[in-house]
Write a sequence for this structure.
């Protein structure tokens, strides 16, 4: 029986983990280094190292012939899909729902407010000792559209609530009702986009959302609207976005880009009206405490034979 659990943290750093001896398991520390901590064939529960890239994330999978659970520390699992073909049927892939909501929602609001209120212009003005006063757009009275209304989209709306927005519309894969109001299906985007002053992307990267924000989508956005991407870079067609930015018709705030990392010399760096952060939506002091609580909870369930949380798919 395989009993190894691969963790990216030392077991004594995670409060509430099942005791190895009592649970009959072995904790192995692996944070993406060149050498594996043990034979991957003995791994039953694999916690994917965080922010080490897809090549590292899937590298042990072909040898993990007995793994039963793959747990990511990211909200999205798109980086794992290339390795799923190597897994036996019945393996559960779990994401990190509950870990990144606070940090990503914070950054979303920071990007919106910085873009609307001219913070990049003020920073440049400070460097040049130039007093750049004037009137700037406010978030108050704006119409906001959130595309991707899972736990992160909901957390973003939580933080929008005090800002006196005129309207918040919500879009997800399929329609449903929430306490705050209806969630519209993706099919209704064409009718919702022209009314939005701020369009927020917080959707997972799937076949349905890859390239979702293309020339037609952008053309439907109102003049002067702000596009905020805290989802994944390939949700947006970079060439189409560049054309709109260079025309000056819309602006953008991007925590993710395609390609990523954005290479030096890429025209997106110098495009007018764009604010770029280097994919740091979840990379804050709030990450590790929540990640470790998730791992303790998941492994407690696993050892007890209870259903796991955050199961995204089970291999066939």
């Amino acid at each position: 029986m395989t009993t190894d659990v691969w963790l990216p943290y030392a077991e004594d750093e995670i409060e509430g983990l099942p005791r190895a001896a009592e649970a009959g398991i072995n904790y192995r520390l692996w944070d993406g280094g060149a050498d594996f901590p043990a034979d991957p064939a003995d791994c039953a529960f694999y916690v994917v190292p965080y922010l080490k890239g897809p090549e590292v994330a899937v590298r042990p999978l072909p040898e993990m012939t007995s793994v039963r659970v793959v747990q990511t520390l990211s909200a999205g699992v798109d980086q794992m899909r290339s390795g799923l073909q190597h897994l036996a049927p019945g393996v559960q892939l779990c994401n990190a729902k509950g870990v990144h909501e606070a940090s990503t929602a914070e950054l979303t609001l920071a990007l919106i407010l910085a873009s609307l209120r001219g913070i990049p212009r003020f920073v440049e003005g400070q460097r040049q000792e130039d007093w750049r006063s004037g009137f700037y757009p406010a978030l108050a009275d704006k119409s906001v559209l959130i595309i991707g209304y899972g736990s992160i989209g909901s957390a973003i709306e939580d933080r929008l609530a005090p800002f006196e927005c005129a309207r918040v519309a919500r879009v997800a894969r399929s329609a449903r009702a929430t306490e705050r109001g209806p969630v519209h299906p993706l099919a209704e985007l064409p009718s919702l986009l022209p009314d939005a002053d701020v369009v927020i992307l917080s959707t997972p990267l799937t076949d349905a959302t890859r390239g979702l924000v293309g020339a037609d989508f952008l053309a439907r956005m109102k003049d002067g609207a702000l596009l905020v991407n805290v989802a994944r870079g390939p949700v947006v067609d970079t060439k189409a976005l560049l054309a709109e930015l260079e025309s000056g018709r819309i602006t953008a705030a991007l925590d993710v880009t395609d390609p990523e990392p954005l290479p030096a010399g890429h025209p997106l760096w110098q495009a007018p009206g764009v604010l770029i952060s280097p994919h740091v939506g979840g990379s804050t002091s709030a990450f590790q405490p929540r990640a470790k609580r998730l791992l303790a909870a998941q492994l407690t369930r696993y050892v007890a034979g209870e259903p796991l949380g955050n199961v995204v798919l089970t291999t066939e």
